[in-house]
Input
Amino acid sequence: MIEINNITKKYGKFIAIKNIDFKVNEGEIAVLVGPNGAGKSTIIKSIAGLLRYEGKITICGKNNKTIEGKRLFNYVPEIPSMYPLLTVDEHLHFIAKAYGISNYKEHAEMLLEKFDMTDKRKKLGQELSKGMQQKVSIMCALLTNPKVILFDEPLIGLDPKAIKELKKHLLELKNQGVTIIVSTHLLDSVEELWDRIILMKNGEIVLSKSKNEFQLEKESLEDIFFEFTEGN
Ligand code: ADP
Output
């Protein structure tokens, strides 16, 4: 599980996110939504340890910036970044080595198959399309068996089969107790996945609520989004 306590991030004098608090429980899929500029990427990058900020973030009780904390989570950025001269196989091998995972081969084969990348395994990073790079980025994150996984706009650029496989995989991970945060604009596409909505606006949380706290079961993510961002 993941706990965010009183996080404030300033870019120079500009306060991008202010006093953010929320918690996502073990085995929950949280969708992080909000208009452009609300602060979603800033919070995801803060959790991933890529920014300096005020406040405290813990992953299963460990500070996110410690080695113990970093072992427990992984992050799929919005824009994948490949090593241009490593093949797909070598990316997986490199990540497994970096995380000290020795028996990763079977897991890697399963991921390659799931994301239709088996025949692309010898391609170099620089030869991959944007969607393929996104798939490699996702496979590398999943290979480390994280307890918490962060996705920044994971579905953009993926083909329909990969979207279907990723959603199926997220539900499997959730059932294994993995905590998942997905930042997205594609509300329809995560409708069947979410357990908790974290809605941001102007750098603040306007709503953090689990699905079963809503009175109306039929309320869609889109209804909730507009109700809280436009006050209708
Ligand atoms: P979102 O992901 O919700 O679209 P961001 O977290 O990217 O929002 O941005 C939140 C606010 O912080 C925006 O006003 C954005 O312009 C600002 N911002 C983001 N990154 C930087 C940066 N590196 N320097 C200055 N301002 C930034």
In short: Residues 11, 14, 16, 34, 36-42 surround adenosine-5'-diphosphate (CB under 6 Å). The longest helix spans residues 160-175. The beta strands are 2-11, 14-24, 29-33, 54-59, 62-63, 73-76, 148-152, 179-183, 196-201, 204-210.
